[in-house]
Amino acid sequence: MEKADKIKILQDLVSINTVNGNELAVATYLQQVFAEHGIKATIDEFGDKRANLQAEIGSKNADQKVLVFSGHQDTVSIDDESAWEQPPFGAQIIGDKLYGRGAADMKSGLAAEVIALIELAENPAIELNGTLRFIATAGEEFGTPGAYRLNEQHAIDDADALVIGEPTDGQIIFAHSGSFNYRITSRGQAAHSSRPAQGINAIQGLVNYINLEKDLFTDTPEDPYLGRVQHSITVIHGGEQVNTIPATAELLGNIRPTQAFDNQQVIARIEAAVAELNQQYDAQLSLEIIHNFEPVETASDNGFIQIVKQVAQETFTDRQVDLLTMNGATDASVFVKNNPGLPTVILGADGDKSSHQLNEYTTISSYLALIEIYQKIAREFLQ
Could you give the domains of the chain? Predict the structure, then answer.
């Protein structure tokens, strides 16, 4: 494929507005791109213009390996469009930078994976000894409905390795924490503020929890790669009127589980704290789990990790490629529920620090290099 065509595919993807949805438009576009190159891609639409897409090349013998390239089609919001220096869906190129919402996170990775499949399929000198599967997901930025649907369909169960194309500035992420979002609701008894003893202040119930939560995870073991569990109270709602004792109040919290102290241990710790407080105080607390994403961790000396590091360093000649960890979460957090221990890397183009920001961008040079890297990974792993 010509360089100009590769750039156009990325520009076309960035120009499609997929802010928290509308993935069907991207899936339809990519299906057409694949079809133009003789590759069948299947769209799984599941309402309200949400859709996943799958395509694969290579051989399908049961005793051969399966490598999955995956990326999400949605983006976060653009915030104040007038504050952008370049149109958020304009996909404008200035020098080596291509600007737009999703340019980094993660339509550059998505396009690079697509083109890698196409070029591998069209190269008569290459015969993959196994299956290379491409999966484009819906809703990674909020709730991961696409990844959960793929798990229900067992789309990742047979995978032997996984590459997620999130932006990493060419660095290799071999482990990332989980992400656990939860709600604590406190229920008391309303009363006039002039007679507080007749009521039960629901806000005080939250205060009791907050005081306990600050030290709730101090004794947890330190993960060798991800460190200690990170935890925060991030949202509080309570009270409707200044002269009324509030009957209900709630808070939201986020916790980053690790392999050393995983999601089930986090849940058990919070449940125990809630039970303890409910015995001690009148305001009664309840726990609701909102999102529950698993940590993802592959040993840094794993053979697949070493393949990725070697080919990435060979190709990214302008930088040192390192093995790193991060505290974010990806679709891999869902996929590993069905395939525990799946060797996983996150590797993508430039622009990581501009993700979710105004004037998001990636670089053309890193995007083109990424296409080459993805092909090399497939050739090495499926040889």
Answer: 3-177+295-381 (3.40.630.10), 179-293 (3.30.70.360)
